[in-house]
Write a structure and sequence with these properties.
- By secondary structure, the chain is of the alpha+beta class.
- The chain folds into three domains: 176 residues, Immunoglobulin-like, CATH 2.60.40; 83 residues, Sandwich (Immunoglobulin-like), CATH 2.60.40; 232 residues, Rossmann fold (3-Layer(aba) Sandwich), CATH 3.40.50.
- The strands form six sheets. It has a six-stranded mixed β-sheet with strand order 11-10-9-12-13-14, with helices on both faces. The chain has a five-stranded mixed β-sheet with strand order 1-23-20-19-7.
- β10 and β11 form a beta hairpin.
Length: 564
């Protein structure tokens, strides 16, 4: 760290001779990246609120005095109020123009209309996947151009995949959808199939029944474990989306096209699943869901759940399988479980929508219309904010309600917020790894990269490929009360075309800026220079910049080819 500080000090001496702060590193240094703790006595809660009339049209011109806000049933004064009118200006990035690669650049106003469509192949049976693709194609065929940028993602067992980046041309998305293949891998087995067996009439039958019960319990335990793993993979994908778009202001719509969430949290599921679902598993998933809702709310992303299940799915799943009278245990009444499962999935899809301010489209009917309605909420809305005193507010989930004193007005908003027990940001290591593994560019910190040259590598058969990572003015938070303290984490990972990691680096830039250095950061930004040791081949390198004090991240991917 002493050597790094010296580099910064030297840059500070020459600030006025260059256009930005330049930090060079001869080789990658791995520095422990514990997050900086920021204490706060209050927390700002922002609630994007969609207000429509009976016909579904936005009501404009409402005043702050016409809104009433309550937390846990108690009135709270509104501290921030704004009517937001979004624009449909395209978002774009530099993908090699003039040798530069960058994350999002936006035009127009600060508030953009963004629709993120996710096809959930992980939790959706293949038959419903095919129907979803057909209905999405129908919607895209009818969608008008310039209706607002849309991107298309897919979730499978391999994780989140970017099918097509943001575009205002639905035809390009439709072409990408046609290239997406259904997930042929077996999904979670949420049904129990049993062979015929004799009724319980004698001792031999009782023994057979006990063996069946033990087998079903074993299968239920396996299904529960698979469900937990799938739930965590689903949560991780949604976390990547929340973190990626947190830096872009305003309300964003996430159209979650899925057959449901893989792990239920409702009370009946405990009875259905015990003893296959241990308490610690439920607690872990509950904590993951709570954290996910908080991240979605921090990013102002509203989830629109589009139910992909066929209208008759989940009924008679076993074809007459095991009946309660067969084994004397309601836990394995598969017909009852099928009916409960459908109701529980409805509740889960509704819960994720309500907790983020979106809407659930249930029943699996007219999916094209559901996609259409889900993309129309962000043209205009109201941003309402109030401050929560941490000292007098218990950690956990808190209910929020917004009412509008205008006849015929209907308000839709997220129904609560999660106040965490820990006020510190997530660890730098977790944040950076999430960004490095994501197919999305994170936009919390604007960043661009250029390849600046090649040198002989340190080992035979490798080349050192140099790069310049450029951050714009005021890209990082500076704690002026702590001698202009600034902490920036930088990481890069190079993968070959098979996705294998070939090279990586990580470094923490931590310094107390001198006055002239602070001015340069504010007005000219910073350039970070380093290199990667790569053998001949073609690679995709993802770069991540994390503002540790501000808990924001930016990332960008750049291809590079190394000749023998």
């Amino acid at each position: 760290m002493g050597r790094l500080r010296a580099c910064i000090a030297i840059a500070g001496v020459t600030f006025f001779a260059i256009s930005s702060v330049v930090i060079s590193s001869v080789q990658a240094q791995t520095v422990p990246a514990d997050a900086i703790t920021l204490k706060s006595s209050t927390e700002l809660v922002l609630i994007p609120t969609v207000v429509n009339d009976k016909s579904g049209a936005h009501i404009s011109g409402l005043r702050k005095e016409e809104f009433a806000l309550k937390q846990d049933g108690k009135p709270h004064p509104i501290a921030i109020f704004e009517e937001v009118k979004t624009d449909s200006a395209p978002v774009h990035r530099s993908e090699g123009e003039h040798g530069t690669f960058s994350n999002f650049q936006t035009g127009g106003s600060d508030y953009h209309r963004l629709n993120i469509i996710v096809l959930d192949f992980l939790n959706t049976p293949p038959g419903d996947q095919a129907n979803a693709r057909n209905e999405l194609l129908k919607f895209l065929a009818e969608a008008a151009e310039s209706g607002g940028p849309m991107c298309l993602l897919a979730l499978s067992r391999r994780g989140l995949t970017l099918i097509h980046d943001f575009t205002d041309d639905p035809k390009l998305l439709a072409a990408a959808v046609r290239q997406v293949e259904s997930n042929k891998a077996p999904l979670i087995h949420d049904q129990i199939v049993a062979t015929d067996h004799p009724p319980v009439t004698d001792l031999a039958s009782a023994i057979v029944t006990q063996l069946i019960r033990e087998q079903l319990q074993s299968e239920a335990l396996l299904a529960s474990t698979e469900a937990k793993d799938t739930a965590l993979l689903t949560v991780q994908a949604l976390q990547q989306i929340a973190k990626a778009f947190r830096g872009m202001p305003g309300r964003k719509s996430l159209i979650w096209a899925s057959a449901g969430f893989p792990f239920s949290l409702s009370s009946p599921s405990y009875l259905m699943c015990e003893p296959a679902c241990p308490v610690h598993q439920r607690d872990e998933i509950q904590g993951s869901y709570d954290n996910l809702w908080k991240m979605m709310n921090d990013a102002q992303i509203a989830i629109y759940s589009v139910d992909l299940r066929a209208a008759d799915s989940g009924v008679n799943m076993t074809g007459g399988g095991v009946r309660p009278s067969d084994i004397g245990d309601a836990q394995f009444d598969t017909d009852a479980q099928a009916q409960w499962k459908r109701q529980d999935t409805d509740s889960a899809l509704q819960l994720f929508a309500e907790n983020t301010g979106g809407k659930a489209f249930l029943g699996g009917g007219n999916l094209a219309q559901s996609f259409r309605q889900a993309t129309q909420d962000d043209s205009s809305y109201y941003m309402i904010g109030y401050y929560v005193p941490r000292g007098s507010t218990k950690p956990g989930w808190h209910q929020v309600s917004v009412t509008v004193g205008r006849k015929g007005a209907h308000a839709r908003y997220r129904n609560g917020f999660y106040l965490s027990r820990d006020t510190s940001p997530t660890s730098a290591r977790q944040d950076v790894q999430l960004a490095l593994s994501s197919p999305l560019d994170f936009v919390g910190v604007p960043v661009s990269v250029t390849w600046s040259g090649k040198d002989a590598g340190k080992s035979a058969g490798k080349v050192r490929v140099r790069f310049d990572l450029v951050m714009p003015p005021s890209f990082a938070s500076v704690d002026e009360s702590d001698q202009n303290h600034m902490v920036v984490d930088i990481a890069a990972v190079a993968r070959n075309l098979n996705g294998d990691v070939v090279a990586e680096l990580s470094q923490r830039v931590e310094t107390h800026l001198k006055p002239d250095g602070l001015e340069q950061i504010r007005h000219n930004g910073m350039t970070y220079r380093n290199g990667l040791q790569l053998p001949p081949g073609e690679y995709i390198v993802r770069f991540v910049v994390r503002d540790s004090l501000g808990n924001r991240m930016g990332s960008v991917a750049a291809p590079v080819k190394v000749s023998p």
